[in-house]
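FAQ

Q: What does a record look like?
A: Structure on top, sequence underneath. For example:
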């Protein structure tokens, strides 16, 4: 008879686990019109869909949805750019606050987190709603 000291054995069915993939990131936006214009310019693409009410704007980031939502908490989103210096210069010219200038974070010894041998450069900006956004370039020098 089972007891606290001798519980019944538990059988777990063996299943093949399919790895999860990122589907959506939600980002806080007080003003959906202002945030939508900011991200349209930053991403170089218009929103995929907008629903107001309830106050949602979606962008497609290569198969991952970026959701701008009044009710979402602030998220730190990192976006890939091909030329971080040019991106920061363009954003500064538009009056966007540059929180952190482009700098090397590290060099990838292998391809675990990025292309082997590439330097990972990052810079940080503030979006129209005050959220921090990271820009990332993998640079082969």
């Amino acid at each position: 008879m089972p007891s606290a000291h001798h519980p019944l054995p538990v059988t777990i069915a063996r299943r093949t686990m399919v790895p999860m993939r990122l589907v959506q990131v939600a980002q806080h936006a007080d003003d959906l019109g202002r945030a939508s214009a900011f991200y349209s310019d930053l991403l170089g693409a218009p929103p995929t869909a907008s629903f107001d009410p309830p106050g949602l704007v979606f962008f497609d980031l290569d198969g991952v949805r970026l959701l701008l939502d009044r009710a979402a908490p602030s998220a730190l989103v990192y976006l890939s750019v091909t030329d971080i210096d040019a991106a920061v210069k363009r954003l500064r010219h538009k009056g966007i606050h540059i929180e952190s200038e482009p700098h090397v974070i590290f060099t990838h010894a292998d391809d675990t987190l990025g292309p082997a041998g590439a330097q990972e450069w990052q810079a940080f900006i503030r979006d129209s709603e005050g959220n921090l956004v990271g820009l990332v370039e993998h640079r082969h020098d």
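Q: Is there anything notable about this one?
A: The domain at 22-74 is CATH 3.10.180.10 (2,3-Dihydroxybiphenyl 1,2-Dioxygenase; domain 1).
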